[in-house]
């Protein structure tokens, strides 16, 4: 690309970022009527190919110069290209050595796991999906043969689990159910020193142990109700959308849900101890705070949603209805359909369907927001709470230094976080870093 093209891209991207940040700041302080018309996204489609080719070529040549100063990143400007090349960067794990594991491809797609170290990214052979315990000590690596749990990443093996057959419990009476889903999990969470594992999939949420698999969802009542709704010639298919789960850091509590359930919490003996009505239409996500004192539940409707928080001490015996005004519940955030979270002391960070990271306290007070773009699909935070890694459906893997001295000029948001680098995992091309 030539100097004129570079200058045009830089000027337009930075002008848009400055304008949109000013627009949002005014809207939040004075109201959206005072903010006026939202700034228009610059027309830069004619520069997309030369800009991306320049960045890709510089990376391939081993050029470590930070190109983001002369060629700032703009998700909005790249949308016409992303419609053809983007792919989901799902489960994201930041290892203690600073390298990153990322599942490339959505759960229902043929995909695999990339290991990103420095400026290198390579596929991990035969590993389909990954997971980690809440205390960061145990890792799960899933292959066609089963799920292996190790102490540390690829360390000493502590357990190995077979995939559920789909015939456990009541399902054994159904017969003929398609179990091809088994090797397409949404989440894998080891707990109890790696001796048990929470497997979340669209066809069931299970706790795996040496003694076998126990189904938490769908419940027996859900299955019977769904069977009763079938036509006489219709086959039963145990598929439930929006499955999700979380395990508390002390392994005492398991929070699960799906589109048709309430927010449910089980104890470590797998007894149901709480059923909490969502504050939007469909339960969508759950997580525990890093100290295990709070649990957050998100429910969604289309691309919007509401997140509520509950003190873990209040969970036993809790039974509330949809949209209940209960003093034990705190509305943490309204507006976001949540796909990923990370926690650090006093702060919950959510990633939503509109490409935003939003941070808040457990009292519901907003802290900051940062825009990455597309739908956020994976997130992890370092043990010291200073580095955040975020994946999105645009094929992004962003590495962000939190609480920096300044934000990059192209960033959209109100926080002083510094995007260190952004990887691009796009279809039909080698990964590259910008």
Automatic annotation (TrEMBL):
Alphabetical list of InterPro entries matching this protein: Quino_amine_DH_bsu (IPR011044), WD40/YVTN_repeat-like_dom_sf (IPR015943)
Name used for this protein in its record: WD40 repeat domain-containing protein
């Amino acid at each position: 690309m030539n100097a004129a093209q570079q200058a045009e891209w830089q000027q337009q991207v930075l002008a848009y970022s400055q304008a949109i940040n000013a627009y949002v700041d005014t809207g939040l302080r004075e109201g959206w009527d005072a903010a006026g018309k939202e700034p228009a996204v610059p027309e830069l489609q004619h520069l997309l190919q030369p800009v991306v080719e320049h960045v890709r070529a510089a990376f391939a040549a081993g050029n470590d110069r930070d190109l983001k100063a002369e060629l700032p990143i703009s998700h909005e400007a790249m949308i016409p290209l992303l419609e053809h090349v983007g792919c989901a960067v799902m489960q994201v794990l930041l290892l203690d050595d600073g390298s990153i594991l990322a599942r490339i491809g959505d759960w229902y797609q043929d995909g695999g796991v990339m290991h990103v170290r420095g400026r290198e990214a390579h596929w991990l052979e035969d590993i389909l999906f990954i997971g980690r315990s809440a205390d960061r000590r145990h890792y799960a690596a899933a292959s066609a043969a089963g799920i292996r749990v190790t102490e540390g990443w690829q360390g000493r093996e502590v357990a190995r689990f077979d995939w559920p057959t789909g015939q456990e419990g009541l399902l054994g009476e159904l017969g003929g159910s398609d179990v091809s889903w088994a090797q397409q999990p949404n989440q894998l969470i080891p707990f109890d020193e790696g001796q048990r594992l929470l497997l979340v999939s669209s066809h069931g949420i299970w706790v795996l142990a040496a003694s076998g698999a126990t189904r938490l969802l769908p419940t027996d009542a859900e299955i019977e109700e769904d069977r009763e709704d079938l036509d006489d010639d219709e086959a039963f298919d145990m598929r439930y959308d929006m499955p999700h789960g979380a395990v508390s850091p002390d392994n005492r509590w398991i929070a699960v849900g799906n589109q048709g359930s309430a927010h449910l919490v089980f104890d470590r003996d797998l007894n149901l101890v709480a059923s909490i009505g969502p504050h939007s239409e469909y339960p969508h996500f759950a997580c525990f705070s890093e100290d295990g004192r709070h649990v957050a539940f998100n429910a969604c409707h289309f691309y919007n949603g509401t997140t509520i928080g509950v003190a873990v001490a209040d969970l036993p015996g809790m039974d509330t209805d949809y949209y209940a005004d209960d003093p034990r519940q705190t509305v943490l955030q309204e507006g976001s359909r949540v796909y990923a979270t990370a926690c650090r002391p006093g702060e919950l960070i959510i990633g939503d369907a509109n490409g935003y990271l939003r941070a808040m306290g457990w009292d519901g007070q907003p802290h900051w927001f940062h825009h990455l773009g597309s739908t956020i699909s994976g997130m992890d935070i370092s043990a010291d709470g200073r580095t955040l890694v975020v994946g999105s459906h645009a094929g992004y893997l962003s590495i962000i230094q939190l609480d920096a001295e300044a934000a990059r000029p192209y960033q959209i948001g109100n926080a002083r976080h510094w995007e260190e680098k952004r990887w691009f995992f796009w279809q039909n091309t080698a990964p590259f870093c910008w």
